[in-house]
Amino acid sequence: MGEVHALLGENGAGKTTLSKILTGLYRPDEGEIVLFGHAVEFSSPRAALDAGIAMVHQHFRLVSPFTVAENVVLGDHRDVGRSFLLRQREIEARVGELSQRYGLAVDPRARIWQLSVGEQQRVEILKALYQDARILILDEPTAVLTPQEAEALFETIRAMAADGRTVIFISHKLHEVKAVADRVTVLRRGKSVATVPAADSTPRSLAALMVGHDLDAGRRPTDRGTVGEPVLDLAGVCADGDRGVPAVNDVSLTIRGGEIVGVAGVAGNGQRELAETIVGMRPLTSGTVEVCGRRLSGGDPREAISAGVAYVPEDRLGTGVAPGLSIASNIVLKSYRAAPVSTGPMLRFGRIRDLARGVIDRYDVRTSGPNVPAWQLSGGNLQKVVLAREFSGEPAVLVAASPTRGLDVAGIETVHSYLRDAASTGVGVLLISEDLDEILALADRVAVMYEGSVVGERDVETATVEELGLMMAGAGGED
Amino acid sequence: MVNNSLIVVVLSSGVLYGTPLLYAALGEVLAERSGVLNLGVEGMMLMGAVMGFWTVERVHGPTPLILAASIGVAALAGAVMAAIHAFLVITLRANQIVSGLALTIFAGAAGLSSYLGNDLQLAGKPAKHQFQEIFPTSWQDLPVVGPIIFGQSLLVYASWVCVVLVALYLTRTRLGLNLRAVGESPAAADAMGVNVSRYRYAHTLVGGAFAGVGGAAFSLSITPQWVDGLTQGAGWIAIALVIFAFWRPTLCLLGAYFFGAFTALPFALQGHGVTVAPELFQTLPYVATIVALVLVSSRAARLRFGAPAALGLPYVREER
Amino acid sequence: MRIERRLRQPWWLVVVVPVVSVAVAFVLSGFVLFLTGHPPLKSFHRLLDAAFIANGALSETVVSATPLVFTGLAAAVAFRMNLFNIGGEGQLYAGAITGATVGLLIGGSPSPLIFAGMIAAGAVGGALLAAIPAILRAFFSTNEIITSLMLNYVVALIMEYLIFDSHSYLRDTSGFEANVFPQGKTLSDKASWSSLSIHGLVLPLGFLLAIGVAVLVWVLYARTRFGFEVQVIGDSARAGRYAGMRTRRKILAVMCLSGGIAGIGGASQIGDFRHQLDPRGLRDASYGYTGIVVAALARYNPFAVVVVALLLGGLTNAGFTLQGADFPAGLVGMMQGLILFCALGGELFVRYRVRFAW
Question: Residue C244: its chain A contacts at CB < 8 A?
């Protein structure tokens, strides 16, 4: 009680699965849960909530058109608002009270889609507090926050612990775990490996437990190959978001062949829209996009593809790949129009199969065959397929958006090595990522996006995390 | 006399013809708000029409009681049909569009409703008990408001009450909030302990019940006989109506009477001696539906007043 | 009850499940018959007899099946890309109108020319009508289910108007009865489509044409770039766009193809069977809606469409032959609906593995 306990492990170690079992979303196959001295079994999320366990997921479970208050009170069957009618004012008052108490500033009347990601997270926490959760599970909460917002979150966590609540903090970031936790349990490959007091551990000792061997963390030396001509030139690019409001404001950026340029920033500041604009999936409202000197009219993916733009989208399964189709079909997703994949209007299935087998072998994709539907592949293997396909087109520019999201260490390594290989063959790589560490490890230059504009550009060698963090929060940088 | 003018006649008939649309649309709003697309409305209305008529024919008793019973039976018939659809799409995760169509074929004209109507010999005679106007004739003769507001039957007035109730339900009650969450983001609702399946079942069945009552409005008030396929596509218009009304009950009222007026127009014009081929005028409600739908589907409209986000998608908890 | 997505779909499951569904549907129909006082086994026997076994029954079944192959293919072609074209009914009417018009206009030319003309006219009529919901969907994001459906009612009313309320070219204005009993003008003998006779089984030109269309559709969808794009867009429209596919053009192409096929079905109705524009007959037959059932049962496979069309055609044919006081009207629609329900429910077992926890 009143403890902040961290669950540490790399992606795929089982942290999220464990927390889903604790909150009634999954059923355990074996074993038991003992809560406050009683063995319990949760048949549904409601059962877990009733028992006092609440979770803030990595992907928020919020109803976008609802207000903050409506989200907080959803499904509630306890004191305030238990009655049949909704008592708006009472609910809003209570929400306001809670947000004051724990430092979670947010307007109860605001609609979720109007809020920033950090504010949405506060709503998620308020939901748990409203239901008077005794145990709160936070799943990778700082992934979507600026360094400064993360600090504020730690304050909130300490306040909750001081109140006698228990916080389980899931992360793979060693320094955070050290900063906020009392004790740490390390998971590796689904098993609990050790439980140690945070005060006694160092990032290095924790990392060793996580991976099972000594790991050399830190920045890798970048191979500075020769940097060539500009392959991607953005000048004054503006584009609208899904709601018709401008999402990309006057972005200018140049990428040369052979270099990796990172775009850092908290999710929701226009990065996704920028990527989509470059590759033609979103129309330009003004400005120019030039690929190897050729000006693109925008809004046409085929034009971008033929100009030599490759795109590894954030949404692997829904956009980068047609999930119901076979791996083979997905491999030829962009190349099916020309020889050797097709002759005239007819497809050549023999060639497709051969190409697919070649990719599977060369990139070590773990699967039982080229006809397996894509949705069955694991995240890492899927990403291999996507990358393989994009490279086979011999692109001039590669736009990669959050390419390592949800991958385990091996998968992340693979993706990083592909990106470096691409750069060494002269491709200009635009790496969009929410993980500042990743950008610092890979990129030559980093541009920070905030509210749709690039608020600063730095060379990675000389940039500092504090400076970048301030820019990500809109507080630093030049205009 | 102003009450005989074209406008008044069209408006008062518009209310009459719009009533089945309103009932069906209200039901569909509830179903769709839970995320279930129900295309079987036409079939449910036809079942309600035939079973309501049957009750009136075969059960003996005082008129008000019989009419009440027939509405109950019609609602039940609609709900039973909806239960089939609900089972298929919620529990068995079938494609909601094909399932709804299957229901229309199964229960529709040349389907179960036709089978029952012919087997039970319900054709060719007017209903023994009908929904009549309830206000005294002196009130009905008041200028303009007379025919339009006071010249309607209990079914119409009940539909107004229903609109208010459904609107309040959606916006002011806890159940309504949960319902809207289920339709927008079943994952969020589930994580908050709301039983997604249960809400979907309940509201699809209620939707079917409303559709059944809408069908009974035809056989017990408008036509008022039983004929095979007497709804003539009203169920489909009701579905379009829901989109046109941005899933809001109050706008359903306006939309229903709007389309009802179009349906009434050819007959009203004939009554005024306009001799134009009736068929061409009869296309008006359908054409109006298409036009309305296009306007509503424009990007700007969709951005502000979209469909429940999870409409048409089955929800499976363990599927990622 | 636990439901898990299957990783592999054994090929036999895809055949067994629809067959079992049909069987279950028959059992349920038998139950309904029993409850309403009609002896089920005897009714089914009469059904089977009237559909396939009796003298000339099979030829009659082919007659009933021909339009269903067209409308079934039309639905399958569109539904494969998640375009729910419910307007097959109206597109068939449109093809009938244009086909009949051309058939009357060039009624004096040599027969092959008339056939070609009618087929082309039918295809164009259906395609043009389908273009309306296609354009509305591609450019205005308007739901094609409702727009195509509304147009069914509109075209049906236009057909009625042409024959019953106007003095159009299509109406038979000769003869004394013409004003009292309106009907369509009869096409010339040369415009009567030929047929192939094999051992007493008569295969109308329309049927043969339908099979040809089925083959073409199969090749198009399974072997060409066009088909690949349809597959991708049907699976994930976003992925299609990502890959540079022209989704709007595809929507137009697929809808018009769908409408065109249904339109040829309409022309076949005129040329093969009715020889005049018969609005009431076409409306009562509901070929378009039944075609959707056919397509769904066939799981959108063109060859399966032919088989299922024969099955449902047999059912329809039996319905006509047996119509009367003994044999309940509406039974055919009910059975079709039941078969479809069972097939839909059966889909679950194809895609998922179901485990019951006791």
Answer: 280, 300-302, 304-306, 334
Would residue C116 count as lying in a domain?
yes
Mean pLDDT, rounded, for B206-217 = 96
pLDDT greater at residue B83 or residue B309:
B83
Least confident stretch, A128-142, A219-233, B114-128, C133-147: A219-233
Residue B258 resides in a domain: yes
Query: Are the Cβ atoms of B101 and C86 closer than 8 angstroms?
Result: yes
Q: Which residues contact B266 (CB under 8 A, 6 or more apart)?
A: B278, B281, B282, B284
Q: 3-state DSSP helix/strand/coil percent for chain B, to nearest 5?
A: 70, 0, 25
Give me the residue from A279, A322, A337 closest to C235, CB to CB: A322
- Of 3.30.70.100, 3.40.50.300, 3.40.50.10420, 3.20.20.140, the CATH number of A4-211 is 3.40.50.300
The pLDDT of residue A207 is 67
Mean pLDDT of A48-56: 82
Q: Answer for the pair B47, B215: CB distance below 8 angstroms, yes or no.
A: yes
- Average pLDDT (C239-244) is 92
Residue of B116, B294, B313, B319 for testing the chain C interface, max C β-carbons within 10 Å: B294
Whether C45 maps to a domain, the answer reads: no
Instruction: Find, among B181, B180, B187, the residue nearest to B314 by Cα.
Output: B187
Alpha-carbon torsion (A88, A91, A94, A98), positive or negative: negative
Name chain A contacts of B318, Cβ cutoff 8 Å: 25-26
Judge: B88–C341 Cβ closer than 8 Å, yes or no. Answer: yes
Cβ contacts of A327 within 8 Å, gap of 6 or more: A356, A360, A365, A367, A369, A370, A371, A372, A373, A374, A377, A385
Find chains touching chain B: ≥3 CB pairs under 8 Å: A, C
Number of domains in chain B: 1
- pLDDT recorded at residue B33: 93
**Gap from A222 CA to chain B (nearest CA, Å):** 37
CATH architecture of A230-308+395-472: 3-Layer(aba) Sandwich (3.40)
- Considering chain A, what percentage of its residues have pLDDT values greater than 70? 92
